[in-house]
């Protein structure tokens, strides 16, 4: 006595007389009444009232036995009780209808041949049809419940997977934080060890930089505008440490600035260029950062004229390995990071990922 895919079960009349069940029951009762009316002598209205009333009684019994009694003996299945109840309500309901429709002083319906024939015919049709409709409704209901449970399981599994990815991303960001801090503090220590008068100025710049950068290490996402700001601050600190050996330039399309990316994305590439490209080079070099948007994809490029790939063999070390993993978690297979050796020396790091705006 139901149709469609039901929502999760709700108690009381809201479920027994739900709109989906009422619509299906009324439709079936009216169709059955129209078919029977072809040979019915009392008129269309009379038979429609009877079939609709019987359909509503069957729906009420089907729904009540679905919830009551709360507990059944082990030998009695609830579906069997529902089918039996719907079957029994057909002759009983028909009897009640004929009794109530008998006028005062009129003979009982079983003494009138036409009315007795109508009673028997309507009871027989109900007994033959109603249990099968109830069985079909139970099967459909069971399938819908199985689909609902499968969907709930898939949603729960997706939520667990998302939580696992978030935890993994936080772990990777936690690995980035000490990696970056130790590298930058080591640079300041070198100046202090050599007694450079510029150590205090570099340390002041570094403190100001870290004050802005560290809170963003734990943010779930950043924008390219923030990434460029951090990269510029980092390069300025590094330029103070080696003013004669490092030059840099940053360029970005305006439409790229609000785009979303994992925190420390550009900074990782810039730091890698300084640490593995410019620092080991006796002549130093130049770092250029360019960010453009082409055909719905963001292209972030960091080019340095340092020593090149060197011992990394094209992988880029731990920092870039972590960056690749963070990009995979954020964008899936749509993001890629490529390293290309330049002639006569240097390295080009190209990062491509979907152009998605940060926030709503």
What does the secondary structure layout of this molecule look like, with pairings?
Elements: H1 13-16, H2 19-36, H3 44-67, H4 78-100, H5 113-193, H6 199-213, E1 222-223, H7 224-241, E2 246-252, E3 260-261, H8 265-278, E4 285-294, E5 297-304, H9 317-331, E6 336-341, E7 347-354
Parallel strand pairs: 2-4
Antiparallel strand pairs: 1-3, 4-5, 5-7, 6-7
Quick tags:
360 residues; alpha+beta; 2 domains; two-stranded antiparallel ribbon; rod-shaped; disordered N terminus
Walk me through this protein's architecture:
Helix 3 runs antiparallel to helix 4 (78-100). This protein folds into 2 domains: 13-157, no CATH class; 196-354, Histidine kinase-like ATPase, C-terminal domain (Heat Shock Protein 90), CATH 3.30.565.10. The strands form 2 sheets. The chain has a 5-stranded mixed beta sheet with strand order 2-4-5-7-6, with helices on one face. The chain has a two-stranded antiparallel sheet with strand order 1-3. The longest helix has 81 residues, at 113-193. The chain has helices spanning 13-16, 19-36, 44-67, 78-100, 113-193, 199-213, 224-241, 265-278, 317-331, and strands spanning 222-223, 246-252, 260-261, 285-294, 297-304, 336-341, 347-354. The chain is built from 9 helices and 7 strands, in the order ααααααβαββαββαββ. Strand 4 and strand 5 form a beta hairpin. The protein is α+β, with helices and mostly antiparallel strands and 360 residues long. Helices cover 59% and strands 12% of the residues. The protein is rod-shaped, with a radius of gyration of 39 Å.
């Amino acid at each position: 006595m139901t149709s469609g895919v039901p929502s999760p079960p709700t108690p009381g009349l809201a479920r027994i007389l739900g709109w989906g069940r009422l619509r299906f029951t009324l439709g079936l009762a009216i169709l059955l009444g129209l078919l029977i009316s072809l040979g019915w002598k009392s008129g269309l209205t009379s038979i429609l009232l009877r079939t609709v009333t019987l359909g509503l009684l069957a729906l009420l019994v089907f729904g009540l036995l679905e919830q009551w009694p709360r507990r059944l003996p082990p030998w009695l299945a609830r579906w069997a009780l529902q089918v039996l109840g719907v079957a029994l309500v057909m002759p009983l309901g028909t009897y009640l209808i004929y009794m109530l429709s008998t006028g005062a002083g009129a003979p009982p319906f079983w003494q009138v041949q036409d009315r007795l024939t109508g009673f028997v015919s309507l009871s027989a049709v109900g007994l033959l049809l109603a249990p099968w409709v109830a069985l079909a409704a139970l099967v459909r209901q069971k399938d819908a419940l199985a689909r609902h449970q499968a969907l709930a399981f898939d949603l729960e599994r997706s939520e667990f997977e998302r939580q696992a990815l978030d935890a993994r991303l936080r772990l990777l960001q936690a690995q980035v934080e000490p990696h970056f801090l130790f590298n930058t503090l080591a640079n300041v220590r070198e100046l202090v060890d050599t007694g450079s008068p510029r150590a205090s100025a570099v340390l002041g710049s570094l403190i100001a930089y870290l004050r802005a950068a560290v809170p963003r290490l734990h943010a779930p996402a950043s924008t390219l505008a923030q990434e460029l700001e951090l990269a510029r601050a980092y390069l300025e600190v590094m330029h103070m440490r080696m003013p004669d050996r490092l030059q840099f330039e940053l360029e970005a399309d305006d439409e790229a600035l609000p785009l979303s990316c994992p925190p420390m994305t550009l900074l990782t590439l810039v730091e890698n260029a300084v640490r593995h490209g410019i620092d080991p080079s006796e002549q130093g070099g130049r770092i250029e950062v360019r960010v453009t948007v082409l055909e719905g994809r963001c292209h972030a490029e960091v080019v340095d004229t340092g020593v090149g790939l060197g011992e990394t063999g094209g992988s880029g070390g731990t920092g870039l390995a972590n960056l690749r993993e963070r990009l995979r978690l954020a964008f899936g297979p749509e993001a890629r990071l490529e390293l290309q050796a330049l002639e006569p020396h240097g390295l080009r790091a190209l990062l491509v990922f979907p152009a998605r705006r940060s926030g709503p």
